[in-house]
Specification:
The chain is α/β, with parallel strands linked by helices. The chain has one domain: Rossmann fold (3-Layer(aba) Sandwich), CATH 3.40.50. Helix content is 50%, strand content 9%. Strand 5, helix 7 and strand 6 form a beta-alpha-beta unit. It is globular. Its EC number is 3.6.5.-. Keywords: Coiled coil, Cytoplasm, GTP-binding, Hydrolase, Nucleotide-binding, Nucleus. Binds to RNA polymerase II.
């Protein structure tokens, strides 16, 4: 097998470096999403699960989920999913072939998958009329998804197509310490300001430890300060944790908080009620801001083109006055206004990835495909390439 070929995904050398996905993927995915979104009236909400896995318990509700797994390193999924990144990218092969560590291989796998995310959008929008929600399970290493280029592209693209909310899932038993609790809240705060999407704090494992203490700490500053003073392990960190708790008070007011159990399904009704509230917030706050951002970007692009054209025409006029040969331009060449919007997502070399990648993502839920068909197909390709 060639050193630049992955058993499950042909990997170009230039794309394999962690953290670099290029602009073609984002533009292609955004363009496809905009075209597909207009073809259906129903827009099921997208729930981006960050942190602990929450997906298995959603099947207890009598609704139709569409599940996307973005964790390439998971050994065995405890739930059925419609689209699995592992069908397209062989995580262990990426790690071995490019001599990467676990986190580097996950980032590179996400980068590769993002180049085909327009296919994911096509599959989602085709099923949108019959779906109640789309649930996206992200890698357990939070920073890999929330702070990587591919994670940002996936989040922004989904949010531009469908109402999208963030579910930050917290391990309740491990957050009983005030210092750990504040660390989780700071992480949630950074993700909230990074994505600017509606967020739900989900305290998981409420069947093990009741999350009532967390609600008290978020609503009663004195109760939190008492917990900090009572924490014998806090040491010199006690004053810092107490001060940060005071700063976070305003942050708590902007969050929706629920406690659930992914094992028993307890609290899931409250969770989906919070999702409905977050979707309403998406339409009120996020969507107008996103539309304005896109309009400003288009206007800036059109203005830049107009300025460049004006400068070109002035340079040509000066050359003509100095005895140079006059060059006539067709009307279509200077019709910037009409081409600005149609070419907004166009980019030279946008189809380069199509010549390199041959993988076509498929919906696992289609009746014509067995559960393990994708794996067998890739395994067959790998075997034949080695021969």
């Amino acid at each position: 097998m060639s050193s630049t070929t992955n058993a499950a995904f042909p990997i170009p050398q230039a794309t394999a470096s962690a953290g670099n996905t290029g602009t073609n993927s984002k533009q292609s995915a955004s363009s496809t999403g905009k075209q597909s979104a207009s073809s259906t009236g129903k827009q099921p909400p997208v729930i981006l699960c960050v942190g602990l896995r929450l997906t298995a318990s959603v099947y207890t509700r009598k609704q139709t989920p569409y599940v996307i797994n973005l964790d390439p390193a998971v050994g065995k999924l405890p739930f059925a999913c419609n689209i699995d990144i592992q069908d397209a990218v062989n995580y262990k092969q990426v790690m071995s072939q490019y001599q990467l560590g676990p986190n580097g291989a996950i980032i590179t796998s996400l980068n590769l998958f993002t180049t085909k995310f327009d296919q994911v959008l096509d599959l989602v929008t085709k099923r949108a009329p019959e779906l109640d929600y789309v649930l996206v399970d992200t890698p357990g290493q939070i920073e890999i998804f929330t702070w990587s280029a591919s994670g940002q592209i996936i989040t922004d693209t989904l949010a531009s197509l469908l109402p999208t909310v963030l579910a930050y899932v917290i391990d309740t038993p491990r957050s009983t310490s005030p210092a750990t609790f504040v660390s989780n809240m700071m992480y949630a705060l950074s993700i909230l300001y990074k994505t600017k999407l509606p967020m739900i704090l989900v305290f998981n494992k409420c069947d093990v430890v009741d999350a009532a203490f967390a609600r008290d700490w978020m609503t009663d500053f004195e109760a939190f300060q008492d917990a900090v003073r009572a924490d014998e392990d806090a040491g010199f960190m006690g004053s810092l944790v107490g001060s940060m708790g005071m700063v976070l008070e305003e942050f708590y007011n902007a969050l929706k908080v629920v406690s659930v159990s992914a094992v028993t399904g307890a609290g899931m009704d409250d969770f989906f009620s919070a999702v409905d509230e977050a979707v309403a917030e998406y339409y009120v706050d996020y969507k107008p801001a996103m539309d304005k951002k896109m309009a400003d970007k288009k206007e800036a692009l059109q203005k830049s083109r107009q300025e460049n054209l004006t400068k070109l025409m002035l340079d040509m006029a000066v050359d003509n006055e100095n005895g140079g040969k006059e060059v006539k331009m067709s009307s279509t060449a200077i019709n910037v206004g009409k081409t600005a919007e149609s070419n907004f997502y166009d980019d030279d070399g946008a189809n380069e990835d199509e010549e390199i990648f041959s993988v076509t993502l498929e919906d696992r839920s289609t009746p014509s495909r067995a559960a393990d068909e994708s794996f067998n197909r890739f395994l067959g390709k790998a075997t034949s390439s080695q021969k």
